[in-house]
Structures are given as C-alpha cells and as structure tokens.
Fold this sequence. Notes:
Elements: E1 2-9, H1 36-46, H2 52-62, E2 71-75, E3 90-98, E4 101-110, H3 116-146, H4 157-174, E5 178-185, H5 188-195, H6 197-214, E6 220-225, E7 228-234, H7 238-253, E8 257-259, E9 262-264, E10 268-274, H8 281-297, E11 303-305, H9 318-321, E12 324-325
Parallel strand pairs: 1-3, 10-11
Antiparallel strand pairs: 2-4, 3-4, 5-7, 5-10, 6-7, 8-9, 11-12
Amino acid sequence: xxxxxxxxxxxxxxxxxxxxxxxxxxxxQVLPQYQHKQALNLLARLHTCxxxxxxxxxxxxxxxxxxxxxxxxxxxxxxxxxxxxxxxxKQYLFHLFIDNEYLCDLSLYSHTDFTEADAERxxxxxxxxxxxxxxxxxxxxxxxxxxxxxxxxxxNRIALDQALSREVASAQRHQTELSLLVIDIDHFxxxxxxxxxxxxxxxxQTTTNIIRGCLRNSDQIFRYGGEEFVxxxxxxEPLGSFILAERxxxxxxxxxxxxxxIRIPITVSIGFSTMxxxxxxxxxxxxxxxxxxxxxxxxxxxxxxxDKNISYEESNYKEQIFPLSSHG
Length: 328
C-alpha cells in the first residue's frame, strides 16, 4: 500500500508561539473536543525539543495508542537528515505545507494497512507536529550553515575537527580501520594570479565535484581551507586508501577542466595515512599532511604515504605506495 496526502496548515497570521496558555491554537481546533487536552500536552512536549530525530521519536511514541504502530521519516531539502531504518512495507506519504509554503515530506511506515480512519487521524495529528518540526528544521539548517563551506557545499574545518575526533574514537573502540587523505590543488596560486579569483573559485568547485564523484557513500569530504581538502575513509586499509587516492588523482589529471570560458589542466597532490593503535586525531592528520607536502616537493601530481610498519596484502603495490608513488 502506498498513499499520498497533502497537508496545508493555514494560520491566517496566527502562529503557534510554543507557549502553553492552556488553549489549543486555532489551526488545531479541527481536532475532536475530547482530544484537545492530549493535543495540548503533546504540543508542549514537542516544543521542548529542537532535534529533528528526537522530535519524530516523541511524536511516534505519543500516538502509538491512537494509530497503527508506525515509524516516521523525513525528507527535507538541504537538511541531510539520516533516513529512518526498519521501515514497514506500507507507506503513507504526507506533503507538508504551512501557509502554502512547502516544509518537508513525511513518510509513515507500518507493517499493516492504514485504514481510512487512520488516514483521517494522521491528517489531524500531523498538524500538531508541524510547527515544532518547522522550528527544528530551521535550527538544523542554521547549524548546517555553520558546518558547511559556502563555496563548495562540503563540510568545513569546524565539521572536520568534530568528525575526526569522533571517527578516531570509534575506530579505537571497535578496532576498525580508519584512513585520511589530504588533497591539495597544485599551483593554485598561479590559477588565481593568471586567470582571476572567480575562475579560481570554479577550480575549487570543479575539484570538489570530481573528488565527490570518486568517493563511496560512507566517505566524508571536507574543505580544510584554501585549496586543501580532507577525506575521511572509515573501514579502509592502506591499500584501499591508495586505490581511492589514485582514482582521485587520475580523475583530476585526465584532460583540461572548463573554468568559465577557458580550459586549463588541474592536478592534485595527495598524502594519506592509516590510523595506528597509538594515533590521535592530530597525529593521524599530521602524517597525511606531511605526506602531501612530500608529494609536492617530489614533483606534484602524486600520491604519497609516509606510514611505517604497515603490511600490504598485495605486495605488488608496496613499491608504489611505500613511501611514494610517482607519476609523470
């Protein structure tokens, strides 16, 4: 079963402030009288939470006695909210609007069919969720701006610091592989000086798109600053890191790149490191950063690793990676 409904909440200028004055907002008066108290209590609880995921969980749990058991997920432009797992086979999709302005899509999943009565109740109760959800979405987007690079759209250095600490702790706790790439555009200052900063910006965006196209869904890309990027590779051993770094290097080196009305060659130098048991987030980054500078000093357009005491299952790659892989 797959059903779609559009919910447009018209407030006529009277929005919900989130303050409890023991009266149900006018746009919720469509609920049956006997449910007003329940709706008011739920609205008060929802307004105390500004985390989207926790908000949806609170809403789900509050309505388990009213509706067929369900899980809820959200699809919101530019929100990057993780998708809910363990879905049921039945879906009810809501397009949610407030005063004719699109907010998001909400999908409810269940293992049993939604009845017509369920659909009617859902349409009503979604209204209780709407304004707390809008507040949470607005806050989430503001936070995302803090952690996003405005030019390239990837995560920035603030986000890297948090993610790297988190991933290093996770890798140590679960004894899993973690690798890091530091990628630097070769001769980037010359691009700016010769062709102008606007084309330099396009070069950064082009490089970002090419790196993204080489990555897996689990890989994380960050703009560290200037022309330097960092990629975090979870569950990735040295050989896998080298293969991915080479994929990026080759993709950049193949052919010229269109920067506005001109085409120019762009290459990158890449250093990488795989975490050892005694590494910290700082030492892991420093090793990859030093490897990148070694690649620069050795002629650019290269992949370099300076890690010691790393064993490679495919010995034929060892000479290419350890300590330096050189190309042209």
